[in-house]
Amino acid sequence: MCFWFAGCVHSKEAKIINQKAFLLPVIEEKQLERLADTETEKRMRNQGLVDIQEIDSTIQVYLVYATTANFVGKVLYSDIRKAFMLPETARRLADAQRRLKMLRPELSLMVYDAARPMDVQKEMWDKVRGTDKRVYVSNPANGGGLHNYGAAVDLTLVDATGLPLPMGSPFDWFGDEARPDREEELIKQGKMILLHLHNRRLLRKVMTDAGFKILPSEWWHFNLVSREEAKNTLKRIELKNGE
Predict the structure, then answer these.
(1) N or C: which end of the chain has fewer CB within 10 A?
(2) Bridge-partner residues for 110, per DSSP?
(3) Is residue 239 included in any domain, yes or no?
(4) In CATH, what number is assigned to the domain containing residue 176?
């Protein structure tokens, strides 16, 4: 069995990750309904975070960690259904959406992950601790990552039907195919095609023009500020004990 977040490689594709295989569940799985805030979501608001769809309702949201289709293999956001983030993160993301619509009116941003409570970060770390995959997950003992401050967003581009554009690797792919800093090499090796590169460059353009910073290891990840600035000026999202 091949899950969309893990990807599939078929020899006849010359080692290019099969895009249809990992996109199918996005089409087939029913989108979670937007309801009144859960207790966790209320606490996230109390920490000053905002729901991106209340800032710009045209931005789509599909929280991967609210499903079982993720690298941990289970639901991590049991009562988070909305993409929360810092107000400044939301403002810049809305600007990125505006820029995208100016360039490609038929496309939209779709958020895979945004603000992430520290207890979820610890579950993710426990999954990869002691393995070669630990480099892809921020260690909570070191302060976690920008998601844990509401200052990062994982996202992609979708067409007018809501189908994600092919990017050369699935979301949360733990490998070189996900790396923006290896794209030219991957093209030469036949592991990516120009369409993937063009789609990634479009995503990077609208996000960086809106003030976000890229992450060299993940095409889908964008930061509002540096890790050091977040640690010094922002508050981590600690919700486990009912804060």
Answers:
(1) N
(2) 60, 156
(3) no
(4) 3.30.1380.10
Task: Give a yes or no: residue 213 inside a domain.
Answer: yes
Quote the CA–CA distance of 206 and 70 in Å, as a whole number: 26
Domain hosting 42: range is 11-233
Model confidence pLDDT, tens digit, residues 138-165 = 777 777 899 999 999 999 999 999 999 9
Q: How many domains does the chain have?
A: 1
CA distances from 185 to 8, 53, 77, 179, 212 (A): 20, 37, 36, 10, 25
Q: Which amino acid is at 164?
A: P
- Placement of tokens 């733990």 in the chain: 174
Pair of tokens at residue 110: 């779709």
- Nearest Cα to 215, choosing from 161, 160, 138? 138
- Tokens linked to 14: 């010359």
DSSP single-letter state for residue 164? B
Evaluate if residue 130 carries a pLDDT over 80: no
At residue 135 the predicted structure's pLDDT band, cuts being 50, 70 and 90, is: low
Secondary structure, 3-state, 6-50: CCCECHHHCCCECHHHHHHHHHHCCCCCCCCCCHHHHHHHHCCCE
Domain assignment of residue 242, yes or no: no
Residue with tokens 């990077």: 204
Q: What is the per-residue pLDDT for 54? A: 96
Q: How far apart are CA 203 and CA 79, in angstroms?
A: 29
- CB of 224 closer than 8 Å to CB of 89: yes
6 located within any domain: no
